[in-house]
Amino acid sequence: MTANEMSFILLTPHPTTPHPSLWRVEARVRRRGARLVLDYRIEGDPSGLLLPAPSEPHRTDGLWRHTCCEAFLAVDGQPGYYEFNFSPSTAWACYRFTGYRAGMNPAVANPSPRINSWIHPDRFELQAIVHLDGLPAGAARRLAVATVVEARDGGLSYWALRHPSGPPDFHHPDGFALQLGSSAA
Length: 185
Hints:
By secondary structure, the protein is an all-beta fold. The protein contains no helices and 13 strands. It has strands at about 10-15, 20-30, 35-45, 60, 70-75, 80-85, 90-95, 105, 115-120, 125-130, 140-150, 155-160, 180.
């Protein structure tokens, strides 16, 4: 699946973490020159979701412990990958891994990702814009998109394009199912 210009794609919940307030979770990825535009739609009853309060944009760790939209980017032929976390609060994080769940270090995101979110009667939406400048170049990049959704009761639900067998694991290579071309869209 190529992600230069795509429609929304359906994410599925991990079988061990269903969420009764959610009906559907979707993501869309668009390439705009050196920018990656990620749109997430979480459909259902927003009153059943626990969303972090809005704040000034800033980098912070541990966003995946609460409602958070995520993207993982790998360059074909190069070891490691990047993880991006986007909170409804506008907090964000970016990490570089040298291998599967190995060698995690904060990565530079310059400029910082731009995050906007909206609450509607039947859905929550988040858009994140990431600048790819400064990340390793490559002929092809693979991408995984996912969300962590926190319920008001504190339970977490994990949604992804693909889930490996076993517990939820957004880092697993099988999740990098989208191909992001190198040309501008």
